[in-house]
Amino acid sequence: MSEQVTLVFDIGKTHVKLQVVDCNLQPLIEAKTKNQVLQGQPYPQADVEGIWHWLVATLSDWTITESITDIVVTTHGATAALVNPALSHERALTLPILDYEYSDINDFAAEYNQLRPDFSETFSPALPAGLNLGRQLFWLSRKFPTEFAQASHILMYPQYWIWRLTGHCSTEVTSLGCHTDLWAPATKQYSSLVKKLAWSKRLGKPTSAWLEVAKVQASVAHLTGLSAQCRVFGGLHDSNASYLRYLQSQNKQDFTVISSGTWTILMSSAQGVSLDERKDMLANVDVNGHPVACARFMGGREYETICAKLGGDVVQDESEQALLHVLQQQYMVTPDFSEGNGPFGGNLPVIQAPAKSQYAQAIATLYCALMIDYQLSQLNACGNIYIEGAFIQNRLMCQLVAQLRQDQSLYLSSDGSGTVQGAAMLSQWHKASAALHHDRCYASEFDELIAYKQHWLTLLN
């Protein structure tokens, strides 16, 4: 038997990535491209053909492709495809895949809200735009009834790509349980909304993320150079992939994972956390179907927006001198810079900083550190804290979080992509755990930080 070589196909909101890892989950080769939203008719939509052509071209160009034995797909949440495999290839996707940031889906809001389950059933708060997938699907069913009716399957986004690779339709709980209104985590079954709308057959019976779904279909093998014996696994939601590594390795000790990118999602293993739906707190669902207490804000997006508003670029500044000046002058901004998301979604931002500030990055860094600290408190987080993703590049931000959480130990992932490593574990589910490589992050020592935090908090009220 050939050595196991796993390809992780990772579709985030901002970037699409391919990474090949060996049997020890160590990276062998990778590629990345920008994830574009097409602004065409009938609404903004995922550029699935652009992603597909990039995938095919990249795999065709790699010499390692024929050695890949396994594929795992992981994607962002709040996204689904309406598919009918019985139709021609051009028509099998009966409607374009709606971009969840499209906000003009309120035509049938009153009707939907009458059907929408209570938070106590789904642990899904009411979110803006299309972040509740059930709201998206309901709008599509009313706005485009003919095309919606033609779809025999509603595929979560990872499973759409699995279908493209294998021709097999499936579903899986981490995407179903990601603030969709479609899943009831406590009972591990579809919510009352799905039953009322008779969607359960189209959604299908969930498959475990670590099970082999199918092998790459012959036409895809021919296009890409993949082996027709290459196995494709059930797939999962991207933040849950980051969480999975710790779920397998922490020996039931409490911990919190901070997955950062366009979204910053804090996931706590602690049981009995009180979730406040008004604060963008919710429960995701792990690969075993268990609820995971979460709090979120659009950290990466808000960092960029704050820098732009203050006239800076989005370079993650490591200058302690700049940050010290900001602390001493108490230059700061408060939420909301995300158009309605996070614990203060909808708040009018306060900007106490010079226009065209040379300290834009330092102000944005402090903002994100304070937001992370606030949400850790909301989750009553205890035990070790692990940061994954984009924010590990901003060491100063992480050091600020460590200073704000003096009673906890903070660690930074050292492998660059916890999402990829966690997803790749699905192809080796027989292993009890995966090796975790982390750097301890020690606290910064800014005497002015606590006074700055207190002032920031007073501006929120």
Q: Your description of this structure?
A:
By secondary structure, the chain is α+β, with helices and mostly antiparallel strands. The chain contains 17 helices and 22 strands. The chain has helices spanning 48-61, 109-115, 119-122, 133-143, 145-150, 157-166, 173-176, 192-197, 200-203, 218-224, 238-247, 299-309, 320-329, 360-378, 395-404, 418-424, 449-460; strands at 6-11, 15-21, 27-34, 37-38, 45-46, 70-75, 80-83, 153-156, 183-184, 189-190, 212-215, 231-233, 236-237, 255-260, 264-268, 281-285, 291-297, 332-333, 351-352, 384-389, 410-413, 438-441. Strands 1, 2, 3, 6, 11, 12 and 13 form a seven-stranded mixed β-sheet that branches. A seven-stranded mixed β-sheet has the order 16-17-15-14-20-21-22. The longest helix has 19 residues, at 360-378. The model has no long low-confidence stretch (mean pLDDT 93).
Task: Explain the layout of strands and helices.
Blueprint: E1 6-11, E2 15-21, E3 27-34, E4 37-38, E5 45-46, H1 48-61, E6 70-75, E7 80-83, H2 109-115, H3 119-122, H4 133-143, H5 145-150, E8 153-156, H6 157-166, H7 173-176, E9 183-184, E10 189-190, H8 192-197, H9 200-203, E11 212-215, H10 218-224, E12 231-233, E13 236-237, H11 238-247, E14 255-260, E15 264-268, E16 281-285, E17 291-297, H12 299-309, H13 320-329, E18 332-333, E19 351-352, H14 360-378, E20 384-389, H15 395-404, E21 410-413, H16 418-424, E22 438-441, H17 449-460
Parallel strand pairs: 1-6, 6-12, 6-13, 14-20, 20-21
Antiparallel strand pairs: 1-2, 2-3, 4-5, 7-8, 9-10, 11-12, 14-15, 15-17, 16-17, 18-19, 21-22
Helix pairs in contact: 11-16, 12-14, 14-15
